[in-house]
Amino acid sequence: MPAPALVLASTSPYRRQLLERLGLPFTTAAPEVDERPRPGESPQVLVLRLAEAKARAVASTHPNALVIGSDQVACIDEDILGKPGDRARAIAQLERASGRIVVFQTGLCLLNTASGRAQTLVEPFRVHFRRLDRQQIEGYLDREQPFDCAGSFKAEGLGIALFERLEGDDPNTLIGLPLIRLVSLLESEGMHPLHD
């Protein structure tokens, strides 16, 4: 049997750029998944469920593949912030995050469509925000417009100026794909980014 293809079940340009860093050939596929939380569902359970659902949503069209599914939420006190979508909501999110800790929960699934084996995990990442005034918040939003980003910032850009410190095992997790953990999952399926 030929080596499995690698498929990213996401249309996120941020996840695509992260996965490109591993130097492995891959394709992307858009998963059709209802991302609404279920009643009483914790952020960790939500991202784990959605990461696997995204991988399984594209599995039927990729019979010999390793499919990567990922989902992320930003939380303050277990309350999911979501993507702001517009300036007013982004201002409200950043005002709420000011001087606080925002925890990003990222679900990851690697699904082997040939064997049916799904490896799943949740990778947390904690962001300690500086105390921000309204002028700083609006200035940041004017420059970067992170309205499609959970938590209303881009850590890979000017958003880094919003933080006091970061706490987690893999800084890529904050952008949406925990590459360190993904490498381990890929290796367990025989795909080694450091081999020819």
TrEMBL record:
Example of a GO MF term: nucleoside triphosphate diphosphatase activity
Reactions listed under catalytic activity: N(7)-methyl-GTP + H2O = N(7)-methyl-GMP + diphosphate + H(+)
Keyword Calcium listed: no
Cellular component GO terms, alphabetical: cytoplasm
InterPro entries assigned: ITPase-like_fam, Maf-like
Pfam family, one: Maf
Name assigned to this protein: 7-methyl-GTP pyrophosphatase
